[in-house]
Amino acid sequence: MTDKEKKKLDQLFDFCREIDKEKFIGRQTYLTDADRKENDAEHAWHMAIMTLLLSEYSNEKIDVLHTISMLLIHDLVEIDAGDTYAYDEESKKTQADRERRAADRIYGLLPEEQGKKLYDLWTEFEERKTPEAKFARVMDNLQPMMLNAATDGKAWEEHQVKLSQILGRNEHTADGSKLLWEYAYDSFIRPNLDAGRIKDDRKGRERE
């Protein structure tokens, strides 16, 4: 092994150890037993498998491995930036800046070629322009929604989430998969809305 090869491997394993910290980043979504909340690494793993199973429902044909890669790395920035709850409007004001600085540091730990690849994947997810990024956003929105529904809306009730907030967060979900958005609304949102677990502040308005 050359010194150059060893240096590169040292960087790669340093990065692999660093991202173990993602397992400590807590989210607001409860696991299906409604006992504890998931962490970022669990969230990423779950979305990756969901993509394997649900990619056929993308509006456009997607590269599944590319989409999974995006989902596995996009929340690594939360090691520095922390998780920003979807409905925390105050924290969302500084989210982009915090996550950009985190991306610079964390992906910058890698050798240049790998660092650029992961940084570009993160940027692609944020920009939501490609078919893969649009579908990745569908998974990022539907996975916690599915768990919220599985726990009878526990987190929604705790945070007093309103229907308008959920619809706002999912404003572009149908851009990635119209069918999955329709399914999620009918199977995850509507039953909790009817049960009063989601605060209905849009009386008389149907799914858009």
Task: Give an overview of the whole structure.
The chain starts with a helix and ends in a 14-residue tail after the last helix. Helix 2 (40-54) packs antiparallel against helix 3 (64-73), helix 2 crosses helix 7 (131-150) and helix 3 packs across helix 6 (112-127). The model has no long low-confidence stretch (mean pLDDT 94). It is built from 11 helices and 2 strands. It has helices at residues 3-18, 40-54, 64-73, 78-81, 89-107, 112-127, 131-150, 154-158, 163-169, 173-176, 178-194, and strands spanning 26-30, 37-39. The protein is mainly alpha-helical. Strands 1-2 form a two-stranded antiparallel ribbon.
Question: How are the elements arranged and paired?
Answer:
Elements: H1 3-18, E1 26-30, E2 37-39, H2 40-54, H3 64-73, H4 78-81, H5 89-107, H6 112-127, H7 131-150, H8 154-158, H9 163-169, H10 173-176, H11 178-194
Antiparallel strand pairs: 1-2
Helix pairs in contact: 2-3, 2-7, 3-6, 3-7, 6-7, 7-11
In a nutshell, what does this entry contain?
The chain has a two-stranded antiparallel sheet.
Widest sheet: strand order?
A: 1-2
**Tally of individual helices:** 11
Helix content: 55-70%
Apparent shape: globular
Structural class: mainly alpha
Poorly predicted regions are: none
Q: Average pLDDT across residues? A: 94
The Rg value, from CA coordinates, equals 18 Å
Q: For the terminal residues, how far apart are their CA atoms?
A: 59 Å
How many extended strands? Answer: 2
Q: Major β-sheet, in short?
A: 2 strands, antiparallel
Compressed to H and E, one letter per element, the order equals HEEHHHHHHHHHH
Strand content: under 5%
